[in-house]
Q: What sequence folds into this?
């Protein structure tokens, strides 16, 4: 007897929706798209023509009223995540949200409490930690490949998004900036590899008070920057490891950017870009030796966004805990908002929440099948 497919409806069909729709229609066949909506209906219509056809809802409230919809996929702008997720939870829908969970810790806590109160699943991006590269790195660490964990370092460096993104203003408003935009990939990877974060320290700055858009659609428009754009943080983990994280929209890229290094007593692990799912893991043991290359051991060695969403759908169906659950997204949010606060107040901020890693992904299954 075939298992019932969980039905998903999209709130928002912006840039990131393309890869979700690609994977949900071509890779992940255990779920079903109920329909889509966007404040700009033409965007939803374009996506329907490109990947569908799909039912196009007039607004998110029509989705919430549809009894056939199980899960709301919230891919609105970062500062809108809270309102959309809250409304969906109040309507009795499970929610999977793009990162971050919310633009403030208080809002994130409210959403978690609401989901728990109503017995609903609440999960979210990023799900790259479930991909081939970081799962392989985690298994190697658990096997003792680099010995006792000492710490780590991660750099995400670029000049911002106004030169290429068609609508870049929100990256410089509440819920944006390099920490809340790209930081979730790095923070969730660090949590996966080093465990729960105990405390944070930081020095942050906003280097340029305005930005000029040079992408085509809004060329020449001026953006006022409301968030830190150069964030230097130290994270102390429960196991005693200490990691440095730099996220910035103010520098040019170098050879060491968009990756993570994990330091152990017996070697240094080079983990590929945590915004991606693939690429081999390397371990350097010094002494002039070439790094050991460890090919990935798990599936999803391609851009598998929607992996966490589909895992949550299976968890709903099977009554288990989701891997990309609120436990990860809330802990990551508290870490990031702690970094912002630590930079503002120039002091150590203790992190209250904790996160226990879910089971490693299963090996040997075809792409799109999770259990």
A:
């Amino acid at each position: 007897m075939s298992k019932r497919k969980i039905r998903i409806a999209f709130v928002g069909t912006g840039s990131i929706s393309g890869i979700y729709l690609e994977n949900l229609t071509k890779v992940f066949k255990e779920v079903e798209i109920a329909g889509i909506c966007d404040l700009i209906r033409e965007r939803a219509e374009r996506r329907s023509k490109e990947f569908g056809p799909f039912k196009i809802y007039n607004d998110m409230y029509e989705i919430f009223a549809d009894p056939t919809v199980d899960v709301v996929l919230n891919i609105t702008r970062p500062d809108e995540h809270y309102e959309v997720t809250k409304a969906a939870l109040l309507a009795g829908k499970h929610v999977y949200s793009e990162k971050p969970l919310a633009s403030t810790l208080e809002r994130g806590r409210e959403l978690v409490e609401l989901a728990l109160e109503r017995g609903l699943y609440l999960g979210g991006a990023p799900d790259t930690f479930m991909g081939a590269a970081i799962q392989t790195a985690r298994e190697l660490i658990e096997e003792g490949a680099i010995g006792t964990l000492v710490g780590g370092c991660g750099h995400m460096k670029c000049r911002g998004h106004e030169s290429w993104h068609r609508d870049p203003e929100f990256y410089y408003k509440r819920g944006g900036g390099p920490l809340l935009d790209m930081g979730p990939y790095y923070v969730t990877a660090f949590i996966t590899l080093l465990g729960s974060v105990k405390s944070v320290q930081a020095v942050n700055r906003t280097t340029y008070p305005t930005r000029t858009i040079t992408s085509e659609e809004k060329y020449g428009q001026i953006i006022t920057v409301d968030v830190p754009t150069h964030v230097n943080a130290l994270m102390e983990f429960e196991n005693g490891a200490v990691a440095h994280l730099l996220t910035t929209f103010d520098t040019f890229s170098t050879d060491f950017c968009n990756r993570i290094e994990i330091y152990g007593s017996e070697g240094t692990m080079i983990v590929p870009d945590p915004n991606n799912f693939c690429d081999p893991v390397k371990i350097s043991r010094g002494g002039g030796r070439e790094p050991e290359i460890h090919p990935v051991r798990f599936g999803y060695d391609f851009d598998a966004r929607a992996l966490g969403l589909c895992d949550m759908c299976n968890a709903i169906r099977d009554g288990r805990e989701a891997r990309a659950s609120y436990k990860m997204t809330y802990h990551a949010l508290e870490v990031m908002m702690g970094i912002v606060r630590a930079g503002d107040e120039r002091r150590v901020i203790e992190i209250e929440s904790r996160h226990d890693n879910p089971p490693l992904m299963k090996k040997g299954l075809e792409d799109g099948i999770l259990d």
User: Anything to note?
Assistant: The chain has two domains: 6-128+304-322, 130-294. The chain has ten helices and 16 strands. The radius of gyration is 20 Å. The chain has a mean pLDDT of 95.
